[in-house]
Amino acid sequence: MKTLYGHRDLILYLVARDLKVRYRRSVIGLVWTMLQPLLTMAVLAVVFSSLFRFNIRNYPVYALAGILFFNFFQQSIITSMNSLRGNAGLITKLPVPTAVFPISTVLSGVVNLLLACVPLVAIVLITGHPIKPAILFLPVSILIAAVFTLGAGLILSPLAAFFHDIVELVGVFMTLLMYMTPSFYPMTIVPEKFLWAVRYNPVRSIMEVFRDPIYYGKIPPMNHLLLASGLALVALAIGVFTFRRMSDRIALYV
Amino acid sequence: MSDTPPSTEPVSETSDAATTADGYIVDLDHVSLCYRLAKQRIPSIKDYAIHWMRGALVYEQLWALKDVTLKIRRGETVAIVGRNGAGKSTMLKVISGVLKPTKGTASRQGRISPILELGTGFDFELSGIENIYLNGLLLGRSRKEIDEKVEDIIEFSGLNDFVRSPIRNYSSGMVARLGFSIATAWVPEVLVLDEALSVGDNRFVPRCEERLARYREAGSTLLMVSHNHASLAEFCTRAIWLEQGQLLADGPIHEVLAKYLDFAAHGDDDIPAQLTEQVTAP
Fold first, then answer.
1. Contact A201/A181 with Cβ under 8 angstroms?
2. Which of A67, A189, B19, B120 shows the smallest number of beta carbons within 10 Å?
3. ipTM of the assembly?
């Protein structure tokens, strides 16, 4: 931990570099981050409001909030799994604490999530959805989401150093997880026999804490909040524990 | 010079090892290191599963270090000799904390400044100046510490206006000069050099040697791997000789060098040892 703190400027540098690369590639890089979830949402809005007809008031806001969260989670996990092998040249030759790579990945994911909240708020305003003061709770929700995601990233990223094909497996699992998370559909359409899979999905709890202040305009109920924070802390604790256990061997395998 | 020795607060990166209380700055205690080379080209979970089900996970084990015990005191200057593949670089990586021993413990006090391989930690698309920051940060320096040294580094490297262009345009000698200048910008507690001077030109090498000599006087600990025995003899008082991962000799530099050169002249079959062995994982 102490060496990680000593490398805090390195973490900030890696975050800044990641963001620069992402946005320098295309002239409209920054606009693109905001455009991409918007377009996804537009597609979903058309498909679901005309084909499936969910009974959801102001579907665009509901779906966009859910999708933004899930994109953040999924991309952070996959990128942090690739971050160790992507930096193998450094890890095998310099005494850098390996945890700086997944940590900086999740941090730059948080920055992207914050940026993507701009079109979200725009949609909220355009659709005439009421903005309540509860939206000020959003930073706390994002903090919980970040802690949870970092924990998951710390658990999974060393595995990717040992087994190079695990990233694809996790990619498949992420698709399953996406359908288990009611980001763009309501809980009410889930068949009885699959309800447990959605209900006990920890990612759903984290997502709802993110969506409540935006969509329902309320601070999440205390029991939800405690559950989500608890899950986030447990994920982080397991992540720190397993990463420490495995970090000694990362340099031998990446 | 404005060089002040960095904080001497003990920093151990090995969690399970106690920091050496008896004055050793580097302490390798019965260290063995095994590279487990999976026979499959790509370690994949698919292969792992298939072989696990067959009950035959075959790995080739390469013990790059075998039961090495090495204690170095603050201010010592140690040369490491041995043939290619003897484990010299692996040992430097264990000392630096890049690799953790498979068996035994490695502990160190203070900050290690390693120069392990040419171009390590450089982003070849970035300019020299940007790389000074990147490399300094990777070495655990803060942005502020680098701000204070950036002029020194540019001046010492002798790169002049080149520092503004991407280092993919540099020659390998220029990259090496920049790397050396960054790693030695701060008075190191332990400086680890793996063939660091071999690519410098005859104007740069004397400046490096002058700097190393000054740090040695200032009490820095030096660890050097080189095949240039003259320069080893000039800088180091102690030498260790590694062969097939084992420590064959440890003592005053001239004695060890003499033994090593004698061995090197008499062929290689003196040490019967199986370098690799087939092991079936449980």
1. yes
2. A189
3. 0.81
